[in-house]
Structure formats: C-alpha cells, structure tokens
Amino acid sequence: MRWKKIGGRALQWLFTNYLKWIERTVTICWDEDNRYGDSQIFGFWHEDSFFMNIVLENLAHKTTPVDVIVTADTRGDYIENMVRRCGGNALRVPDGFQAFTALKKIVQDSYEKTHSIAVALDGPLGPRHIPKKLAFYLSEHAGEDFAGISLSYSSCLRLRHRWDKYVIPLPYSVVTVSVKNYGVVSKNHVPKLPTKAAGLAEMETEAAI
C-alpha cells in the first residue's frame, strides 16, 4: 500500500509538471460558435481529458467557474489533482446506480449557484465516441445550453492500448479547439457531435504508444 501511494504521488507530479510545460509551449487555435456569460454544460471526448484541463481553465475566464464531473474511484484522484491545479473544481460521482443521488444534487446545486459543468461524453469507460446521456440530462433538467468541445492536435502521443486512445499533446505543437453551442439539449434528442475539430484533423501527426 505504501509503495502504491508513492507511485501515485510520483505519477501526479509527472502529470502536473508536464501539463505546466504543455501550457507554456502549445499554441491554441480557437474555433468558437458559442455564447459566453451564462453557466453552461460543456461536453468533450474522454481521449481529450489531458488537454481539457487547459481548455477549461481558459473557458472559466470567459464564462462562469467550471466544475468537472470526475469518477469517484481511484482513477479520479489523478484527474482531480490536475483539475484543481488549473483552477477548477472536481465533482466526484460514483459509477452505476449510485450516481443518481450525486447527479440529483448537482442539478439542485445548479439552480443555486452560477457554475458551468464539464463532463466527458463517453466516460468513464466508453465505448469510445458514443455519448452517454449525462451531459444532456443535465442540460435538460437545469435548462442550460449544451456546448460540445472537440480538439485536434498537430502533433501528439496517442495511447492506442487504452479504450479511449488517450491523447497527450507534444510541446511546441498546435491544438485546435472547437466549441459549438447546441442550445438546451434533451437526453432523447442528442445531436451528432464531431470527434475532432476542423482544421488540423487531416494533418495530425501521431506517435502511438
């Protein structure tokens, strides 16, 4: 158990410091079709979780503070650490049927405070690029616009052994961030969402590991 904790801390240190390096060296190209100012529900693909920390930090300066829904198990510990490092707040939600109580409280809180919420559409465990109902449930019940976020990378590492093909952008690369507002979306009428931002999608250079 002691070595597991040490390993976990070392991994958090590595992720956090690499994120700082990426933040200093990566150029972001914004492609935005969104109305900022009010609280919103932001949805993104799980594979983009690493760079989304920087994206959400930028969005928080344009709209309200952003709370990120994160799994309650140990996988969420690393994510929560990076979310906090970027000035966000993690909402820990358990998987399965236990999630209902937590989600009910999140919806109730959305009436009482002006915060946006971000969620990985195909998280926590896929299938890849198949959106689950959570983001649209929150949009419908809170009466808030849903904004879909898709990313493309000029150069990156892609972990192809993972179900989501997790992306780690490389330093001094370019990341295109597309933000599109779909209005209030019902969980029964999910729009077709792009898996990549336009622009760099066809020029992406990957190194698979």
**Which outline best applies?**
globular
Q: Structural class per helix/strand content? A: alpha/beta
Instruction: Give the H and E element order.
Output: HEEHEHEHEHEEEEE
Multimeric organization: single chain
The spatial strand order of the largest sheet comes to 1-9-6-2-5-3-4
Q: How many helices?
A: 5
The gyration radius over C-alpha positions equals: 16 Å
Please tell me the overall pLDDT. 85
Number of separate strands: 10
State the end-to-end CA separation: 28 Å
Low-confidence stretches: none
Largest β sheet strand count, sense and barrel closure: 7 strands, mixed
User: What share of residues is helical?
Assistant: 25-40%
Beta-strand share of residues: 25-35%
SSE diagram, text form:
Layout: H1 2-25, E1 27-33, E2 41-44, H2 49-60, E3 66-71, H3 75-85, E4 89-93, H4 99-112, E5 116-120, H5 134-142, E6 146-153, E7 155-159, E8 166-169, E9 174-181, E10 205-208
